[in-house]
Amino acid sequence: MSSSEDDGVAQSRGWHGRLPQPFPTRWVQYYLTKPASLGWLLIADGVAFLVGVNFYVHSEPSLQAVSALLYPLFGDSPTGLALASLSVATILPYVKRTQPQLLANMPSNHLVSILHTLAFVWLIKYGIWTGIALNLRPDLYIGFTPALLWEYWGILLTHAFFILQAMTIPYYGETSRTALFIALVLLLSNDVFDYGFGLYPPLRYEAGTILAMITLGLSVAVILLAADAFDSHSTSLSGD
């Protein structure tokens, strides 16, 4: 894609935030509109989702400690991956081997804008949260046995990819005041569930006030980031 085409794509969708654009638009356009690369991304999200669910099945407390209806609030990282997969899946009908549709022109509606917003904030929040939580007590996680190498570096690396994937969503998605409000309510409800009932993601130490306050701060921060990064929902390209 030429630079002029790249600029044209960015006029509608793309990274609108005050922070530097994380990726050139043409890179995201190429990767997310090729059937093979998009398929591999969905497979990676699916595998990571299953690994996350397995972690919560064998953790303490485990999924058995909560109602099935509350699984999305308890399994924070798997929830983010599920939302990310659904967000990416909205592109699938428009992916072709020849002349794929521009990401900037992906149809949208109010429900889809909510989905993209939720995927973005959940991935960013728990990508960052995991790094903070592990490094509040690094003595419990850093080591050189295979288990500890995975439980620190492996988990940090996989959750860093949460952030990278989240950064691609504004290139094809958009948000709205309603979507941001719903996302904030759900994030704060999740925080109350986690720290009010002691069902935060399993750690090797008791989460105290510091981690709880950091988590609340992240909930607000990611909403502000989403409001800044996304294009606002309009009906011009909408499916409404």
TrEMBL record:
InterPro entries for the chain: DUF1405
Keywords of the record: Membrane, Transmembrane, Transmembrane helix
Transmembrane intervals: 38-57, 69-94, 114-136, 148-172, 178-197, 209-230
One Pfam family here: DUF1405
Protein name (Swiss-Prot/TrEMBL): Putative membrane protein
